[in-house]
Amino acid sequence: MEKDLFLRIEQQMPKMSKGHKLIANYILSHYDKAAFMTAQKLGKTVGVSESTVVRFSSELDFEGYPALQRALQDLMRNKLTAVQRIEVTSDHMTKEDVLERVLSLDIEKIRKTLEETSKDDFNNAVDKIINCNTIYIIGARSAAPLASFLNYYFTMIFPHVKLIRNTTTSELFEQVMHIDEKDVIIGISFPRYSKQTAKMLEYASNSGANVIAITDSVDSPLAQYANNLLLARSDMASFVDSLVAPLSLINALIAAVSISNVDKVSKSFERLENIWEQYDVYEKNEERG
Asked: Peptide bond preceding 55: is omega within 30 degrees of 0, i.e. cis?
C-alpha cells in the first residue's frame, strides 16, 4: 500500500503546483510525522494554507484530508519498528494528556469500527459459526490474547473448538490438517501482520473451509482469503496498537452467537454452573451478620 501512495505522489509531482510540491516532498520524507498532523499543522509546517492541504488530498483522489491521513497512518504502522513507534508517540502525546488522549482515541476507534464493519459479513459469520462442525481460531503475537478470549467463550458454547497454538510452521499445519468445507477458521491479525496467520487462512481457504478474518483493513493480507471480513480499528496508541475495538467486535460476535443459539447456550451454562458448584470453582458470596 505504501508503494501505491508514494508512487501516486511521485507520478503527479511534475504537474503539481508549488504549494502541493512542498506538501508532497514533506510527506515523502516525513510520512511518520505527517500521519499525525492536522491539515492546519501540516500546512503551517511546509508554509502553505490549510485549504491547500485539503486540495492536495483531493488531487491524490482521496475524499478529504482525513482519508489521506488514515492512509499515512496505515503505512506507518506497517513500516515502523517498535523503537520508531515510541519516538513518534512522544512527538504527538505527552505524559500529562496520555490518559485522556488514549481513552478518547479508543472511544473513537470503537465508533469507527461500528461504522465500517459490514453487518452482512458479521451476520453471515455468525451463521457460519453456528452451523459448522469445528471452529478453528488463530491469533499470533499481540492478537494471541484476543484468540484466547474468543476460544474461552466459544469452548463453553460449542463442543468442537480448536485454538491453534503458535509453534513451528510444520506443527501449525498439522493442527489444521483435517479442516474442510464443513469447518470455520477465524483468523485475527493486526499490523504488523502475522505471516503464520495469513498462511493458515490461505491453507484453510484452499481446503474449502469458511474463513472469517478479524483485521483492520481490506488491504490486510488476511482479507484476500476471507469469506467474511470483519474490520476493527486498531490504530497506534504507542509502540503497541490498541486492541479495544477488536475486543469489542469479538464481544459482539460472542453475544450474537449466543443469542442465535440461546437454547443450546443455556443448556451448556447450566451444566457449567453445576460443575462449578460441585468442584467449588468460585468463591461464594456469603452474607455477613
From this structure: no
